[in-house]
Amino acid sequence: MSESALFPTYARFPITLVKGKGSRLWDDQGKEYLDFMSGLAVTNLGHVPDAVKKALVSQLDELWHVSNLFSNPNQEKAARLLVDNSCADAVFFCNSGAEANEAAIKIARRYHQKVKGNNRYEIITFNQSFHGRTLATLTATGQEKVKEGFLPLPEGFRHVPLHDIAALEAAVNDNTAAIMLELVQAEGGVITVDAGFLREVRALCDRHGILLILDEVQTGMGRTGKMFAYEHYDVEPDVFTLAKGIGSGFPVGAMLAKAHVKPAFTPGAHATTFGGTPIAMAVVAATIETMLQEKAVERAAEASKYLLAQLQQNLNDLPNVVEVRGKGLLIGILLTDPAAELIAELHNRGLLVVPAGPNVIRLLPNLLVTREDIDTAVSLIAAVLTEQAAAKSVSS
What we know:
This protein is α/β, with parallel strands linked by helices. The chain has helices at 38-41, 50-60, 73-84, 97-116, 135-140, 165-171, 195-208, 278-293, 296-315, 340-348, 371-395; strands at residues 17-21, 24-27, 32-35, 90-94, 122-126, 157-160, 176-181, 184-185, 191-192, 211-215, 239-242, 253-257, 321-327, 330-335, 351-352, 354-355, 360-363. It has two domains: 17-48 and 295-395, Aspartate Aminotransferase, domain 1 (Alpha-Beta Complex); 50-293, Aspartate Aminotransferase, domain 2 (3-Layer(aba) Sandwich), CATH 3.40.640. It contains eleven helices and 17 strands. 48% of the residues are buried.
C-alpha cells in the first residue's frame, strides 16, 4: 500500500469504520461494534438519527450556502431553540468547539474593552483542562503536551490548579477578564468540578466584575443528564460554548451569552464564512427538536444511573480499578495501570471506548442507549479487567 497522503497527526486505532446506525458501527470487514464513544460525545442521538437525516436531506434540496451577509431563517430557528432551553440570550454560530471557545475568549476581552471601558484581557483556566487546538485555545488549555513545538504562545492566559480557590484568588488581578472552565474535565481524566468550588468561582467573578465562561463542548447537549452541565449546579455562566453533540455529527459550534454580554459583539466585531450555514442550522434545529421530543436528556439521566450502578457492582472488587467517576453519560474508569492495551482488547471484542489520559477508560454512549447495550458493555469491560487482574496476580 502506498504511503498516506495525510499528515500523520492522529494515532489512529487499526479499524476502518464505514457504516453506523444507532448504537452500532460496522468496519470495512463487516465486523459489528457497540459504540460507547459516540465520536467523542458527538453522535448523542446515535448514528444517522432518522429525524435529523430527514431534515438534512430536505435542506440539501433547497439551499447550501449564501453568506452571513444575508438573513438566515434556519439560524434564527436554531438560536431560538437554544435560547429557549438555556440561560442564554444570544448565540453566535461557528464550525467547531475550538472556534466557539475562540469566540468566548474574544467576547470576554471585547466586553471589557468596549462595553465596560477597561483594558482587561487575561483569561484564567485550570490545569488538566482542554479547550481546543488553535493557538489561543491550546494556550488556554492546561496541558503542556498540546503546546510542544508551538512557541511563542499568545499572552493573556493563566492556569491554576482545579479546586484551589486560594490559587485562583491569587491569580485574579486588574487584567483579569474571565475565568473559563469545563464542569467535567473530559480530556483531563473525567474530573468533575465540585459544586461548592463552582459557587465560589461564581462569587469571585461577581465580586471582581469578571465573566464566567463555561466550556460545554463535551458536557453540553444532554451528555451529563441535563441539557447543559451547569444545570446540575446552582450557578449560571455569563458565556458558554457548545459543539460536538449540537450537530449529530455535522460540524458546528456555538458561543452563547447572556444579555449583558451581547453588546460586545456588534457588526464587524467577529465573523465566520461557514458558521451557521442553512445546512448546519437545519441539522442543529432537528437535533434539538428530536432531543426534546424523544426526552433524550431524561433518558440519559436514567441510563447514567443504571450504567454507574452496573459498573460499581461489577468493578468495585477489582484490584486494578481505582474508581468510577464522571457525570451523566460521561464516565471514566480510573485504573492502576495504563489503559491502552485494555482499550485495544475491548475494541477487539467489539466494544468501542476511548482513553481520557493514560490510565482512564472513557465511556460515552449515546443518550438513547438501552439497558441491554449497557449490560453488554459492562460485561465486556468487567471480563477484560478481571482477566488483566488475574494475569497480574499470577505473574506476581
